[in-house]
Amino acid sequence: MSVSRRGFLQAAGLVLHFHVSEVARAAIAKPPPAPLAPPNAFLRIGTDDTVTVVLAHSEMGQGIWTGLAMLIAEELDCDWSKVRSEHAPALPSVYGEENVQATGGSSSTIGQFDRYRTVGATAKDMLVRAAAARWKVAPAACKVARGIISHGTRSLTFGELAEEAMKLKPPASVKLKDPASWRLIGTPVRRLDSPEKVTGRAVFSIDVALPGLRTALIARPPAFGAKLVSFDPAAALAVSGVEKVVAIPNGVAVVAKHFWAAKLGRDALAITWSPPEGGGVDSRTLLENFRTLAQKPGAVVVEAGKLEPAFAAAAHRLEAYYEVPYLAHAPMEPLNCVVNIDGGYCEIWAGTQFPSNDQRLAASILGITVDKVRVHTTFLGGSFGRRFNDTSDFVTEAVHVAKAAGVPVKTIWTREDDIRGGYYRPAHVHRIRVGVDAKGRPVAWDQTIVGQSIGRGTQFESEIIQNGVDRASVHGIKSSPYLEVVPSKRVSLHLPQTPVTVLWWRSVGHTHTAFAEECMVDELAHATGRDPLAYRLELLEKRPRFSAVLALAADKAGWKTAPPAGRARGLAVREAFGSVVAQVAEVSVENGRIRVHEVTCAVDCGIAVNPLAVEAQVQSAIAFGLTAALHGKLTLVGGQVQESNFHDYPPLRMFEMPKIAVHILRSDAPMGGIGEPATPPIAPAVANAVFALTQQRLRTLPLRLA
Fold it and tell me: Which ranges carry the Aldehyde oxidase/xanthine dehydrogenase a/b hammerhead domain (predicted)?
């Protein structure tokens, strides 16, 4: 079902003092026979004046516990020190859009900007009317500030009025504040979740404890395409603390009293797997095949003009291959999930991006209705897309384990399980040919992209894949400001299939399309003897947002001045998820290794609800992107991933972290996302800087000097 605007407003008005107890941390009560009803939907005001914002989306470090609460608080005019946030239950009919409750695509603040402000304005209207009725004055005569409604010398707090306000009929519509009168939106605000995380009070799913809870580890196929043949539980059951060994669809689970017993039991498990068909995927061979496939056009993404005549007439031609490997998400909190099945009901605790899917699939596994499955979304210790997939793999596995074991179970993935467990950023190869005229402007552009589809075989396939093109594979291509000025062009796509499971990864297709495009544009600039900044600005003359961020980043980085001895600068710009980001990287080479000293970043994200959060997310995205640019690579041999933990799949270390300066443009552009857009430009900016320093063109990630 969907909720009408009027129905939503009614729900918002009924919550002013409605109380829902916190999720139990050490015990579990049998869930009610039906999911929570809409009256506790988005906002609660307590008699102690606390304002609790219930979030439809998941907090995984991106700062929406604060940002979304700011939207309500702005219109409500409450005391910000009284504001709290909490995750909503899985209830897609209320908290979802088109009956889907999920967090991804840097869309949370964009999608909720009007809705959450409307909640705040509606609640304020009802509180003011309640105060006016008590004083027998016109509502317009009342003033509201910091959670207090006043008329002359009289005043009442929100908490004192909550019960009366709840009984009033919500307004049919409300007028939202003019941006000129905003007092909270656009100001730097410290995060609401930081105190909990600093003190250790924050609950992640790995922290959840229940009476009788057991821990499970799963032995999964060691190679993509391998299948379970047989297993002998005897040795595992002989380990002290191991209680059960159960088969599930994706492997064999060892259930024990605690983690270490489950780990030792799994290590001792005697298990036989069939080898993958054809010997399994080899990443070196796979990329060679991708390069061969890239030599012929695929499904058309963009096409215009007469390509070959344009190449024939070009004054200069370039051709290059750009390659990126499979990448794991590797969040600091490995995947885990707690499941308790009791009396026909199922309770799930998970740090998840996709609670409505988790709920639906759990119900299907257990043969119960969706309303009998409660999903408690905890904090997520990182995700980057891994906890949002079509199969809800880490949740459904946990449901299968709890069902087979007959006890409450916390299923935990080790770091090795997490890195070798699939659902990776797909490997891609780009072949790009470009012809330029005598002035150095591109007149012909032929680009072929080869890589797996994220959407194929999922519930999103019909939406994501059209005419053989997976739009997640070609992010940024159709809207490219560079391709816009090329009269003759063709971009095409091949979607080869492999047994390797793939998934969106922070900034999705932009991770490889930005690398290929921004590196090629830099190659064109140098090949035609142009300054890389001036060359880009010339091509971007009809795209003022791009020009503005580039100019600002270059100015703040000192582009026109010489860098320190032994260093060089490179730049890149990208629009992703509605925000435009430019970066200048300053690098050196130390003992044959690339060292990034400084990154200067300019961002146009439209309205910056919380500039502190924008700055933090840009820093985070750059660190994440640098990890991939300098280190990230998964190697498959015989279908098995060779890397296993942070020693051979390393994140960026503290000593490698560059100084980052973030500059946010004042902009009247539509609001864009911010969790992902700063990841794509960093790899090409560094690669372009390395060329400026060494004259070596590095076209393969991770970046390695010859």
Answer: 199-277
Helices 611-630 & 682-694 angle (0-180, nearest 10): 50
Q: Which residues make beta-bridge pairs with 83?
A: 51
As a whole number of angstroms, the distance between CA 514 and CA 574 comes to 7
CA dist 397 and 400 (Å) reads 5
Three-state secondary structure readout of 104-146: CCCCHHHHHHHHHHHHHHHHHHHHHHHHHHHHCCCHHHCEEEC
Q: How far apart are CA 392 and CA 357, in angstroms?
A: 7
Mention every residue, 6+ apart, whose C-beta is less than 8 A from residue 391.
361
Cα Rg of the chain (Å, integer): 27
Query: Could you give the CA distance from residue 187 to residue 329 in angstroms, rounded to a whole number?
Result: 32
Q: What is the dihedral of CA 681, 683, 685, 690, to 10 degrees?
A: 180
DSSP code, position 169 = P
How far CA 266 is from CA of 236, 338, 420, in Å, comes to: 6, 19, 16
CB 571 within 8 A of CB 583: yes
The number of helix segments (H) and strand segments (E) in the chain equals: 20, 28
Model confidence pLDDT, tens digit, residues 544-554: 999 999 999 99
Task: List the structure tokens of 692.
Answer: 């400026």
Q: Are strands 442-451 and 465-466 parallel, antiparallel or unpaired?
A: unpaired
CB atoms within 10 A of CB 592: 8
Main-chain dihedrals φ then ψ at residue 543, nearest 5 degrees: -120, 80
Q: What's the pLDDT at 41?
A: 80
C-beta of residue 259 within 8 angstroms of C-beta of residue 266: no
What are the φ/ψ torsions at residue 270 (nearest 5 degrees)? -90, 115
CB 674 within 8 A of CB 617: yes
For residue 367, the model assigns a pLDDT of 98
Residue type, 258: H
Taking the CB of residue 602, how many other CB atoms lie within 10 A of it? 26
Q: Report the distance separating Cα 496 and Cα 369, nearest Å.
A: 38
DSSP assignments along 176-206, one per residue: PPPGGG-SSTTS----SSHHHHHHT-PPBGG
Longest C-alpha distance within the chain, in Å? 83
pLDDT at residue number 289:
98
Of the CA atoms within 13 Å of residue 267, those in its CB half-sphere come to: 9
What was the pLDDT predicted at 94?
Answer: 86
Looking at residue 23, its pLDDT comes to 28
In order, the DSSP letters of 298-355 are: -EEEEEES-HHHHHHH-SEEEEEEEEE--B----SS--EEEEEEETTEEEEEE--S-H
| Sequence-ordered list of residues with C-beta below 8 angstroms from that of 439, at least 6 positions apart, any chain | none
All residue ranges of the chain with pLDDT < 50 are 1-40
Select from 252, 276, 282 the least CA-distant residue to 266: 252
Do residues 293 and 600 lie in contact, with contact meaning Cβ atoms separated by under 8 Å?
A: no
What is the per-residue pLDDT for 55?
92
Beta-carbon contacts of 583 under 8 Å, excluding residues fewer than 6 positions away, are 553, 571, 572, 573, 599, 600, 601, 602, 622, 678, 681, 682, 685
State residue 25's pLDDT score: 28
Answer for the pair 58, 380: CB distance below 8 angstroms, yes or no: yes
Q: CA 683, CA 694: separation in Å to the nearest integer?
A: 16
**Residues 6 or more apart from 395 whose CB is under 8 A from it?**
337, 348, 350, 352, 358, 361, 362
Contact 162, 153 (CB under 8 A): no
Distance CA 690, CA 585 (A): 9
CA–CA distance, 705 with 685 (Å, rounded to integer): 16
**Helix (H) or strand (E) run with residue 55 in it:** strand 51-55
Classified as helix, coil or strand, 223 is: coil
Sequence length of the chain is 706
CA 269 to chain centre: 36
Reading phi first (left if > 0) and then psi (alpha if -120 to 50, else beta), residue 278 is in left
What pLDDT score was predicted for residue 98? 83
